[in-house]
Amino acid sequence: MDNIELESLLLGDEPVDFLLEVLLRSVIMFCFILIALRTSGKRGIKQLSIFELVIIIGLGSAAGDPMFYKDVGIVPALIVFIVVVGLYRTVTWASGKFLPFEQLIEGKPLYLIRNGKFSIEDFDKEDLSQDEFFAELRINHVEHLGQVRNAIIETSGSISLLFFDDKEVQPGLPLYPDLYHKKSIEIHKPGLHACAHCGNVEDISKPKTCTVCKHNEWVLAITTLRRT
Ligand SMILES: [Zn+2]
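^ thats the input. predicted complex w/ zinc ion below
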């Protein structure tokens, strides 16, 4: 590689003193981003909804280019920022006023487990794998599905859980790999088994398909109480 190629690799088409300008541009854009996010009214970004992600992407691309492209000015970026943050605030305001609008923009919370039963239809609608969901439950100290009364996936993607009281805990599908991976289409001893696909519990003594979801792998149900 000769010198000329190396120079264009490092500096592009710009002269060395443009680097100083990049420094200044970056500081200005950094301040823009900070001000924009502070005026958006959002307090943190632990969980972003799709709508908020759109805003972040919009701001991000408007902020990046003026930092290092000489032919991109600061003012157009500033206008993008004002428009995007203005839209965000307007839509957030409208979502608070009109529920159908909120559901259109943000989606709505869906039941994954209702009264101890998997809500398969909602589960299929969500792009959430069973593995991810089980991991989420384990993080919340759930050992088997019989401990969970309701699970709801919020629009932010986080999962809210309600538990059965100790005396209401039902036999359920074990979620820890050691037991869960013993799932099998064979039934080794008669008794309460949980469907490995949907968590439906049946008293069975020989191989059969689940009456709820028609899959045929079973795991021995367990009834341990929830300890945190
Ligand atoms: Zn099933």
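Strands lie at 110-114, 117-118, 148-153, 159-163, 191-195, 201-204, 218-220.
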